[in-house]
Amino acid sequence: MNLTLLLDLDDTLLVNNIDDFLPAYLQAFARFMEHAIPSNRFIQALLAGTERMVKNRLPDCTLREVFEETFYPTSGLQPAEFERLAEHFYAEVFPSLRGLTRSNPAARQVVEQALERGYDLVIATDPLFPRSAIEQRLAWANLPVEKYAFKLVPSYNTVHFSKSEPAYYAELLASLGWPDGPILMVGDNPERDIATAAKMGLATYWIIPNGRQTGSIVSTAAGELGDLIPWIDRVQQQDLQPDFATPDAMLAILRATPAALDSLCRGLALSTWNQHPEKDEWCLNEIVCHLRDVEAQVNLPRLQQLLEQVNPFMPGMDTDAWAVERNYHEQDGPAALRRFTASRLEMLDRLESLPPEAWSRLARHAIFGPTTLEELVGITASHDRLHLKQVMQTLAAILPEKALQAPDSPVN
């Protein structure tokens, strides 16, 4: 089975009671910083920045960026000073918190058996910490990144959403190039691991004693971590296929696309944007300009038309021809990405404000025939996934040393 396995970290791979760990972490960090800032003020700033991360929905701001926008004005610390001190804290003090956790004996067995079966493993932790803190907790779980070939370990450096958003899961999958085949999310938290992943259309395995599901949240399966691999061996592959056809999943994909593009394209030399992988294949400029113009000149007008008219007719459009007609090759790729993101946020604002019944509004399309708003949004989400894969294939051809790594992969 070509399975992508998303694994939560705390209280899944690592026994870590957050009610004990978080206060100890805050107190240790505050004590370490007290010569530079009063403890109460530091904790207030740290929690305020963390709350901003949890609530972030902007696809062009990493969690680190939104944290810093709140943390520095609240704390009064200078970025260079805090970064230096924080690096020392995570290297010298954070390791002392290991005693509050303990390894789960089943975790290493699950990871090793999954890798033996050829599964792609993603550490689907809430990315609210720097990379070093996440790597240390993996090491406490006896799963050091140097030993185990995880495809992706997200952190606040490159990820744009927390696990409160279905777009978090969409961004992980987008960063992997939208893998084909079954996908399974494994975690202990009923809301952030199970319910949110289910909104993204993913199969879920809920880590709870004896597999006894309670309350209104329902998982595909539930049980102890040690029961996971035997259960996967028994389950039918089609039962783990994601369903991206719901409004929640489609909206998550639409929000995650500019986020994934932001991570993939940051720091690229301008010369890279117009470099073709092959003679007749699009460069990054052409892909991003195409997404920009389709969003602004096709998707948004169609949404407006569908909401204002009764069963409107929508002509087909040859948008691929625009690449040559509009000379995308010579345009400003980063500026096009910013414009695409702005249009996409406008699209999301309008879609998310609609009542559920609006998704059934009818239209007539020159190519698709009778259709609905829900189907048209699904086509846009599929279009996003197609071009995200194209971006990754392009990067793999022109910058193989970058594209072979997902953002925040262990080798970064």
Strand order of the largest sheet: 4-1-5-6-7
Ends apart, CA distance between termini: 28 Å
Instruction: Output mean pLDDT.
Output: 94
Q: What oligomerization state is this entry in?
A: single chain
The structural domain count equals 3
- Our Rg estimate from Cα atoms comes to 22 Å
Write the layout of secondary structure elements.
Elements: E1 4-7, E2 14-15, H1 18-33, H2 39-55, H3 63-75, H4 79-92, E3 102-103, H5 105-116, E4 120-123, H6 131-140, H7 166-175, E5 183-187, H8 190-199, E6 203-207, E7 221-223, H9 228-234, H10 247-265, H11 270-273, H12 284-308, E8 313-314, H13 322-325, H14 333-352, E9 362-365, E10 369-372, H15 373-398, H16 400-403
Parallel strand pairs: 1-4, 1-5, 5-6, 6-7, 8-9
Antiparallel strand pairs: 2-3, 9-10
Word description of this protein:
There is one protein chain. The model has no long low-confidence stretch (mean pLDDT about 95). Strands 4-1-5-6-7 form a 5-stranded parallel β-sheet, with helices on both faces. Strands 8-9-10 form a 3-stranded mixed β-sheet. Strands 2-3 form a two-stranded antiparallel sheet. It folds into 3 domains: about 5-10 and about 100-240, Rossmann fold, CATH 3.40.50; about 20-100; about 245-405, dinb family like domain (Four Helix Bundle (Hemerythrin (Met), subunit A), Up-down Bundle), CATH 1.20.120.450. Helices cover about 50% and strands about 10% of the residues. It has about 400 residues and is an alpha/beta fold. The protein contains 16 helices and 10 strands. The two termini are about 30 Å apart.
